[in-house]
Specification:
two-stranded antiparallel sheet, 8 helices, 2 domains, single chain
Length: about 350
């Protein structure tokens, strides 16, 4: 009982109660529950191509990274200042981490790729937590059977307005056509690109294709023997001095190698699935959690969840980076050399 009455418990509870009372007394506008959509929403048409909100966010991420890298590196010096020294310390820490897994030979080739992946994923995920994402965008008329909101229009042309909480109604039945002109849902103009399955799938395919490239660069065509393992069967018939029993045993071992090759091939596709779904699932679930918490208990109470999502974004970027390194290392190692 004393633990329940401790300041560590009472202070957060008091903050929640005060926030709820403050919102009720002063009638602070609530938060609209965002539309939960797994596919990316189209927001623009550019030269006949449909542009989605996650694609716009990916372009914004690239612009921020390119401009940021230029600003950071344009005045570098041999005697680093405070900010340059801090940045070099961070980069050196990541480099040493990759070198510990890949070794000094391959790290110079692996590091630029995996560090770029890390920076892109973490920047895209953290951008999804900023006010740029989710709160503004394109209004779409609701379809029959769906729920929508009224809009307080801010201009006479009805091209700019604010969704009104508390006016949510279902558009269905014979009045669907009449209500459709008045009820709207919001398609965010920007949405974190890591919440789009197309983005995570493309990133996973790039990682797996690079794995095959490094394997072929290191081992040549012999790398493909782990997928097409027919050498054992051929050896059973061609190697002299095995005898009848030896050839039968070698034949069955060769058949096992063939099945192992099939499993290896399937595992490469499994990497794509696991990579893409892990990143997509964690970041998308975090976005939904933040939206629901902001809708149920707006403003102050949802702030700790932003800290949680910052940590999740960091972990997911780091996991994607180090798993890519691990797959690269396995690919460049000969059979029996993997660690």
């Amino acid at each position: 009982m004393s633990k329940l009455l401790s300041p560590k418990v009472l202070v957060p509870v008091a903050i929640v109660v005060v926030a709820i009372i403050f919102q009720a007394v002063f009638k602070i506008p609530g938060v609209i529950l965002p539309e939960i959509s797994i596919p990316a929403e189209p927001v623009l048409d550019l030269f006949g191509f449909t542009i989605t909100n996650t694609l716009l966010a990916a372009w914004l991420t690239m612009i921020l990274l390119i401009v940021g890298c230029w600003l950071i590196t344009r005045k570098m010096s041999m005697v680093p200042g405070r900010w340059q020294a801090a940045l070099e310390m961070v980069i050196e820490g990541f480099y040493n981490m990759v070198e510990g897994a890949a070794g000094p030979k391959w790290t110079p080739r692996f590091f630029p790729i995996v560090m770029s992946i890390f920076l892109f994923v973490i920047t895209a995920s953290w951008l999804g937590l900023t006010p740029l994402m989710g709160g503004w965008g394109v209004l779409h008329h609701v379809e029959a059977g769906h729920e929508g909101y009224d809009v307080n229009w801010l201009n006479n042309s009805h091209s700019f307005g604010i969704l009104v909480k508390g006016e949510q109604t279902a558009v269905e039945g014979e009045h669907a056509g009449e209500a459709e002109a008045e009820q709207y849902i919001l398609a965010p103009m920007l949405r974190a690109s890591t919440t789009d399955m197309n983005f995570t799938l493309a990133l996973a395919i790039v990682s797996v294709l690079l794995t095959q490239y490094f394997g072929l660069s290191s081992l040549g065509l012999g790398y493909l023997s782990k997928f097409i393992a027919v050498g054992g069967v051929a050896k059973a018939f061609r190697q002299p001095g095995l005898g009848c029993a030896g050839r039968i045993g070698a034949f069955f071992l060769g058949v096992i190698d063939i099945f192992i090759g099939i499993v290896e091939t399937i595992s490469e596709f499994g990497k794509i699935v696991s990579f893409s779904f892990r990143l997509f699932g964690n970041i998308f679930a975090g976005e939904v959690l933040l939206g629901v918490m902001a809708f149920l208990i707006p403003y102050i109470v949802s702030l700790p969840f932003f800290g949680l999502e910052l940590f999740v974004g960091l972990v997911q970027a780091l996991v994607f980076m180090m798993l890519s390194v691990a797959f690269f290392v396995v690919a460049v190692s000969g059979h029996g050399e993997g660690h």
